[in-house]
Amino acid sequence: MLASIISTGSFLYGFNTVRPAEIVDRIIEFAVDVLTPGGGVGESNWWMKGLRNVQRGSQRIEKEMEIRSNLAHWDEEFPFMHHELIIRYAAGLLASTIALTIYDLFRAQKRRN
Known about the structure:
- Helix content is 83%, strand content 0%.
- By secondary structure, it is mainly α.
């Protein structure tokens, strides 16, 4: 009985306190870093380095806009599974799992003593 209360309470806490916009921004930032190629050949002088830097910046912006566009399309296609709602469910599940694991560890330790 107590385990279900702990599980439900921690799920609700995790679901309501997470900020999905910040998590989405971090995920997009990571994806852009992975998907955008780094420096390459032709950076022997300062002018070429600057040109390549501008090119890399525009590629990053283009890739970020593409990812955000795909997220918006997902939200229109599946309104019942909005990407921010998925993040909230995942955070609640994680909070519930951690709380139950800690509770089980304390119960097991109490039984041994």
